[in-house]
Amino acid sequence: MIRRLPTRRPGAGLHVTPGAAWHYPRNSARVDAPGGLGGNPPESHILGNMLIRRAATQADAPLIAAHRKAMYAALDKSPETALDAMSVSFEPWVVRVMGEGKYFGWVISDAGKPVASAGLLILDWPPDPVDPRGGRRGYLLYVFVEPHHRKRGLAHDLVEMCLAEARHQGIQVIALHGSDAGRPLYESFGFRASDEMVFVLPEG
Ligand SMILES: CC(C)(COP(=O)(O)OP(=O)(O)OC[C@H]1O[C@@H](n2cnc3c(N)ncnc32)[C@H](O)[C@@H]1OP(=O)(O)O)[C@@H](O)C(=O)NCCC(=O)NCCS
Questions:
Q1: Is 118 a member of any domain?
Q2: If you take atom 14 of ligand 1, which residue's CA is the nearest one?
Q3: pLDDT of 115-145, one tens digit each?
Q4: Of 68, 104, 158, 192, whose CA is between 20 and 30 Å from 181?
Q5: What is the extent of the structural domain holding 176?
Q6: Which has the closest alpha carbon to 113: 50, 27, 33, 184?
Q7: pLDDT of residue 57 exceeding 80
């Protein structure tokens, strides 16, 4: 699914994916504030102060890996051994890309226990007709909410953070692979299915 963010001057460059409904992130007023992380503070109370949302750090690599594994387990029922092998190589990868400033993550905690997380990966991407300035594309990754905390707007909050960060970085096109459970949420932000095809080369 692909979403193109509106430029900072609505109307002058509102190149919307055909049929897309546009919604600025609710916190878009803070997008251009200094301080990185989309101009958002590294830690905020949300849902009437009940939960804390904070920026992920490299120390969160095991948590991000665990949420990612739970997400894949929910999606494609991959064997546990394959998911564990994936997590072993994933942790150093996410530590590296965070260190390179290519991955921005957020974690929501309830009484100190992480219950949801998501991340935005910044990709090198050539200019194309959708984004003629090009150069970079955002990829929304690993949106996961623990079952007991679903349907409270946590995923919505995390996606807003990722989109705010993308705007802060001057990135206009955001892509993701949406699960059936996540699709209505992403569509409510304006994401639309694209015509991307994928081929996995056989080994050997
Ligand atoms: C998909 C997933 C991330 C959604 O998380 P979530 O926190 O429940 O999402 P939200 O609460 O922001 O939104 C979900 C729904 O709850 C509704 N909702 C939000 N706050 C609500 C509230 N206070 N009361 C009732 N409903 C509410 C939203 O309107 C939304 O409705 P919709 O599905 O009809 O659009 C979560 O189910 C999950 O982790 N699933 C497994 C992994 C997965 O599929 N991840 C996505 C990979 S692309």
A1: yes
A2: 151
A3: 999 999 999 999 988 899 889 999 999 999 9
A4: 104
A5: 2-30+39-189
A6: 50
A7: yes
